[in-house]
Amino acid sequence: MKISFAYRTAYQPNLRFLKEFEALSIYDWFIQNWEALNSDDYSKVLGTEVYGFPIDIKIEAVEQKKPSFLSQLFNKKDTNISKNNLSPKKPEDFKALLKILEEGVYCNEITGDKNCIKVATDDDEIELGWFVFTEDYSLKNKEKVNLWFNPILPTSFGTQGIKLNQEVPVLDIKGQHEGCTYFLSSPIYDGSNLEDMTVTKIEGIRLNNLLDYLKTNPINKIEDVLYAIDELNYLKFIAQQLDSNDLKTVLETFASHPITELQDIDFKTHTLSDIKQMELENNPEKSKVILNNHSAEISVNSIGEFYNYFLFIDDLWIEKNETLAKSILYFGTHWDL
Question: Is the pLDDT at 283 greater than 90, yes or no?
């Protein structure tokens, strides 16, 4: 069956990396790749560098060196063993595997069963997570994992629109149009990036009404929403400074001059021209905006190597992509899958 390895990392433009394998179980997948995962070759298996790998085995290892001629002749154990020839002992079962991972992988939290292993970790700069899960887990948890299997979001949308049942913070001022729009915010301001992310909802607008709504309404603070309101106000600021109703132009400017680079600056006391002249640490060429009729995906390079990730979807897009939309909301409010 399919075994998936997923890595949640702000070193990826869309924060997620996934690779699929064939194996009988999670345990069998680890056993098949055991030596590589315990060596510097681990990334050849996983497909990317993952913080915490290779697995650091601190338990009994198995000698791989061939016995010398004399030891074979006299049936004696060869004691001339180099530690470099030791190969990590393979766990005997899933329980032993989990114990080795708990002891041999740098992590803040690890939970697991035979269908899914979840690891929360950090690299002293940002919070990260990696997961190994089965095809059965995917089928039973589509509303959690669907986004991971959609690196490119579909462009299809409906005509009536539907709302999701998941509760998320809602802006206090409702727009004057039909529908609703969700805003996923996953930025890097400090090392608590997976705690800072959120999804907020704007009632009474669809994506094509976003700029009009932002420019004509105050975007007020919401309890327990740390940064998303600032980001919406920054979009408002850019739209007003550009005097533009073109959403792609506004989003591209938002991506080229990240708010995360302006943490010690009150952008409202400056002009956009001032900000454009500032020496920021991001690389605008690495940022990307994908705008469709009812969805917008913004990947923002920041501080050189990190990516902020923002996503808008409205109720017409949700109508045709309901399971994926639920997965997006889960991704924006939970570190795991």
Answer: yes
Q: Which of 165, 246, 252 is nearest to 211 (CA)?
A: 246
The strand pairing partners of 5, in sequence order, are 19, 132
The answer to whether 51 and 100 are in contact (CB under 8 A) is no
Contact between 168 and 228 (Cβ < 8 Å):
no
Dist CA 41 CA 14 (whole Å): 25
CA distance 158 to 317: 6
| β-sheet bridge partners, residue 6 | 18, 131
Q: What are the tokens at 163?
A: 């709302």
One-letter amino acid at 39 equals S
In the β-sheet with 16-22, what is the strand arrangement from edge to edge? Answer: 16-22, 2-8, 127-134, 116-122, 109-113
Residue pointed to by tokens 């990307």: 288
| Tens digit of each residue's pLDDT (9 = 90 or more) over 146-184 | 999 999 999 999 999 999 999 999 999 999 999 999 999
pLDDT, tens only, 15-31: 999 999 999 999 999 99
Q: What are phi and psi of 104, to 5 degrees?
A: -110, -5
CA atoms of 236 and 268, how far apart (whole Å): 10
pTM, two decimal places: 0.91
Residue 61: its pLDDT value, please? Answer: 47
Residues in the chain: 337
Q: Domain extents for the chain?
A: 2-140, 149-331
Task: Give the Cα separation of 7 and 18 in Å (integer).
Answer: 6
State how far the Cα of 42 lies from the Cα of 163, in Å rounded to an integer: 43
Torsion of CA 36, 50, 139, 24, to 10 degrees: 10
> What is the pLDDT at residue 82?
43
Amino acid at 176: Q
Q: pLDDT tens digits, residue range 206-215?
A: 999 999 999 9
* Whole-number Å distance between alpha carbons of 7 and 253: 29
